[in-house]
Amino acid sequence: MGVVLGGMGIAHTPTMGHAYDGREGIDFKDRWKQWFKGLAPVKQWISEIAPTHIIVVYNDHLNYFDFSTYPTFAIGMSDHFPQADEGWGKRAYPGMDGDVDFSASVAESLVANGFDLTFCQELEIDHGIYSWLPCLIDHPWPVKFLPIAVNMVMQPVPTPARLLALGSALRSSVVDTADDSRVLIVATGGMSHQITGRRFGLTNPKFDQFFLSKITHEWDELISIPMSRIMQVAGTEAGELAMWYAMRGALSGSVREVYSFHIRPEITGCGVIAIEESNDK
Ligand SMILES: [Fe+2]
Known about the structure:
Blueprint: E1 3-10, H1 14-21, H2 30-49, E2 53-58, E3 73-76, E4 80-81, E5 96-97, H3 100-112, E6 118-120, H4 127-130, H5 133-136, E7 144-150, H6 160-176, E8 182-188, H7 205-214, H8 219-223, H9 227-234, H10 244-249, E9 255-266, E10 268-277
Parallel strand pairs: 1-8, 2-7, 2-8, 3-6
Antiparallel strand pairs: 1-10, 3-7, 4-5, 9-10
Helix pairs in contact: 3-6
The protein binds fe (ii) ion.
Fe (ii) ion binds near residues 12, 190 and 240.
């Protein structure tokens, strides 16, 4: 029987990774340094709770899947997930190891609970995970990963209610596992941002902070806001925040917020929240 230790929501952006690496020739704003400093307590928290597995609900940005065939939900069933090359060359980090037995057990439970995902024997991981991963865990990564990719790029995308239900099914699947897995559930999606059209560069820090203040204990209020409204006030790509509901759905009602932080380094609102289960320690 496995246990859910807690959840983390975090923004991702390609620039975050390059800023962290100090990529040569690019002048990064000091606000990136503040973001990385703001992540330090989360890094400490993950190290303290010491998960054996991290389930990450994320979205691929057409770096592995493409419009010819785009799965709504896809689960990584491999013992290794290489980093995707997004056109800049791969960054100097190893791929992510998976646990096939754990993945198979989670998949079986998800199917039993009405979530028949696309099974991926191969899956390359883009900045959806790699932009923040090296900031929070030192490599070689001392944990097994189970990536779950969600369609956030091709309409119609799954609804917030469906993502919340996916989270709930994920929690059951962890409890159903035969081994003593200690699992952290992560959801990652950019906060306020818009990278197309006349509103390019729009962010809404007030909305981001509102979202962070509600997701732990008042998520039902958040989820009642239509995603179209969120995209209106926080930019079209803020639609990725719907994935955070999967993280919240995987947690019980008995949780405490450990930490949250928000800043807008550039182009995209960056926020993080760490939530710990009270009863599962
Ligand atoms: Fe994204």
